[in-house]
């Protein structure tokens, strides 16, 4: 195996590896000998299958196994022999020419591939005694807990059938068929769908046109999909929905009591409040941990100056950004709620 460094720019390394065809053939012969004693082929006694017949039957697949083994094992040993540490999993590239690849699998050509990676930088550790970190402490107000409990109760609110026209806050069960230019579109049909009027679950304008509808009534609802609608083929288009109202139900009183908690698998309303408080504390705790980590990294950045592996930085940013956006989603907040924008937050992190 011939190993040649073809690039050494900063932390970036590229190594060309050439495995001679003779080495491949030697490895193949070894595998064929091992297989000969175990092969059971029709027309041959165990262990008596000719080597050339084995090569004809299994040579290509065995060579593919040899190539994969070389690719899996070589980068690690090459980097270790160079006394380097790869920041991320090394990337391996080989020929994309099918004819050349076929020659390698037949053992008629050298196997050449490149290993690309970034090394971890070396540096001397500095003193950390002077680093000061402030961790924000958030007091969870009872009002915030109660608001969250009410939102949970709202989602668990029960409804009962009513006579008369539907009002805002009522739940309407319906079937509908949506059309654009008189042609039904994918995802625009349902035989039975429930909607709380005023909840904002459907396209803007849809729910308003169902206020006043009664059981059995057929209505045509005219709406336009928002320009930023999630389905690009519907965004900005006008649509007509043929709606049949099947039932109208009114909401029961919103009660924060033990019965509500038991519906959610908890023993009491106080236990529900405790769980909600713990969830809010966990969300704030995760946010403050991110702030602490940012302060620590900023402080260390002042004491250290060295090149960073680009792919490692990218992977770390993606992990942090996923945590940031996940926490915002869980808490139901936006970047605007945090008095920033997505662009500014990205630049900050």
Summarize the structure in words.
- The chain is an alpha+beta fold and 349 residues long.
- It folds into 3 domains: 2-118, Alpha-Beta Plaits; 159-251, Chitinase A, domain 3, CATH 3.10.50; 258-348, no CATH class.
- It is 40% helix and 22% strand.
- It has helices spanning 21-36, 51-81, 98-105, 142-156, 258-263, 269-303, 310-331, 342-348; strands spanning 2-9, 12-19, 91-94, 111-118, 159-161, 171-180, 183-196, 218-224, 238-251.
- The longest helix has 35 residues, at 269-303.
- The protein is extended.
Helicity level = 40-55%
Number of strands: 9
> In CATH, what is the class of the largest domain?
Alpha Beta
Q: Give the tally of structural domains.
A: 3
Going by helix content, strand content and strand pairing, the class is alpha+beta
Work out the strand percent: 15-25%
CATH superfamily of the largest domain: Trigger factor ribosome-binding domain
What's the main sheet like? Answer: 5 strands, antiparallel
The end-to-end span amounts to 44 Å
> How many helix segments?
8
**What is the CATH topology descriptor of the largest domain?**
Alpha-Beta Plaits
The Rg value, from CA coordinates, equals 33 Å
Mean pLDDT: 89
CATH architect. name of the largest domain: 2-Layer Sandwich
N to C succession of SSEs = EEHHEHEHEEEEEHHHH
Tell the overall outline.
Answer: extended
Spans of 5+ residues with little confidence (pLDDT < 50)? none
């Amino acid at each position: 195996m011939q190993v040649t460094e073809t690039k050494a720019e900063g932390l970036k390394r590229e190594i060309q590896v050439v495995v001679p065809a003779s080495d491949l053939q030697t490895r193949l012969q070894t595998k064929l000998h091992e297989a000969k004693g175990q092969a059971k082929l029709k027309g041959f006694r165990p262990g008596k299958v000719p080597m050339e017949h084995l090569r004809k039957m299994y040579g290509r697949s065995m060579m593919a196994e040899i190539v994969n083994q070389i690719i899996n094992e070589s980068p690690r040993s090459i980097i270790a022999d160079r006394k380097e540490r790869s920041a991320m999993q090394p990337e391996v590239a080989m020929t994309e020419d099918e004819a050349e690849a076929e020659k390698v699998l037949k053992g008629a050509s050298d196997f050449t591939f490149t290993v690309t990676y970034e090394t971890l930088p070396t540096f001397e550790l500095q003193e950390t005694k002077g680093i000061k970190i402030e961790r924000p402490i958030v007091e969870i107000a009872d009002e915030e807990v109660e608001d969250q409990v009410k939102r949970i109760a709202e989602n668990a609110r029960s409804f009962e059938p009513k006579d008369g026209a539907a009002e805002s806050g009522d739940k309407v069960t319906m079937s509908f068929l949506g059309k654009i230019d008189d042609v039904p579109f994918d995802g625009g049909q349902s035989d039975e769908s429930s909607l709380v009027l005023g909840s904002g679950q459907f396209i803007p304008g849809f729910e308003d046109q169902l206020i006043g509808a009664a059981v059995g009534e057929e209505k045509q609802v005219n709406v336009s999909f928002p320009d930023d609608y999630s389905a690009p083929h519907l965004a900005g288009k006008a649509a007509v929905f043929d709606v049949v109202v099947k039932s109208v139900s009114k909401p029961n009183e919103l009660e924060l009591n033990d019965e509500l908690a038991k519906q959610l698998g908890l023993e009491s309303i106080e236990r529900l409040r405790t769980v909600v408080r713990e969830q809010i504390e966990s969300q704030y705790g995760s946010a403050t941990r991110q702030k602490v980590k940012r302060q620590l990294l900023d402080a260390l950045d002042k004491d250290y100056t060295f090149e960073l592996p680009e792919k490692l930085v990218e992977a770390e940013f993606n992990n942090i950004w996923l945590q940031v956006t996940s926490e915002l989603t869980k808490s139901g907040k936006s970047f605007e709620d945090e008095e920033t924008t997505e662009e500014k937050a990205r630049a900050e992190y």
